[in-house]
TrEMBL record:
Family annotation (InterPro entries): ArsR-like_HTH (IPR011991), WH-like_DNA-bd_sf (IPR036388), WH_DNA-bd_sf (IPR036390)
Database matches in CDD domains: HTH_ARSR (cd00090)
Name the UniProt record assigns to this protein: Predicted transcriptional regulator, ArsR family
Length: 195
């Protein structure tokens, strides 16, 4: 089971967003059968089987084992990932595009940029999984508390200078066999964690 899987197919996204199927995906972090799941979610086994077949058709759950119980074969399933992210690719016609409003100080531009990041990394993960390879990535996540808006603006200016300097130092347009990498740096107000 993967820690995170990316859903790129619109039909798979639709299947995963059904509240009951979403609950079944959560329950299937640990393997379970339609019978055991029916008791947990309060549905008839046949209804659970219907939802499991739909999730399986879209690659969101997989068969772990089959057990014979009398004259019935019980299928034990599990989610293919502990969590799922729906790529903007699933909504291709309306996916955000940072080029449409390139205002670096706009929260909506930041959201479009984040959607592009999810789409691009999702594509890389999907391709790497098919090729049985890993994706070389790096990320930093942190928090800074600014005393004032002026400090925040000064931080943004200094950060821009530092990143630009690093890019200038390491970027080599003529590197034979070199591979371009995208850099995304974002600063936004923290959202209080739930719970």
């Amino acid at each position: 089971m993967h820690e995170v899987a990316v859903i790129e197919d619109p039909a798979a996204a639709e299947a995963s967003l059904d509240p009951m199927r979403s609950r079944l995906l959560a329950e299937l972090a640990e393997p379970g059968s339609a019978t055991s799941l029916a008791a947990k979610v309060g549905l008839a086994r046949q209804k659970v089987n219907y939802h499991l077949r739909t999730l399986e058709k879209h690659g969101l759950v997989e068969l772990v084992e089959e057990r014979r119980k009398g004259n019935v074969t019980e299928r034990v399933m599990r989610a293919t990932a502990a969590s799922f992210v729906i790529s903007p690719t699933a909504l291709a016609a309306v996916q955000p595009d940072p080029a449409r409003s390139p205002d670096r100080l706009s929260a909506r531009w930041l959201l479009a940029l984040a959607a592009q990041l999810v789409r691009d990394v999702g594509t890389l993960i999907t391709g790497a999984a098919k090729a049985d390879k890993r994706v070389a990535t790096f990320a930093i996540d942190g928090e800074v508390r600014f005393a004032s808006a002026a400090d925040r603006a000064a931080f943004a200016e200094e950060l821009t200078h530092c990143v630009t300097s690093l890019v200038s130092k390491y970027h080599d347009e003529s590197a034979e066999g070199g591979r371009p990498h995208r850099i995304v740096v974002a600063v936004h107000p923290s959202v209080p964690s739930e719970g």
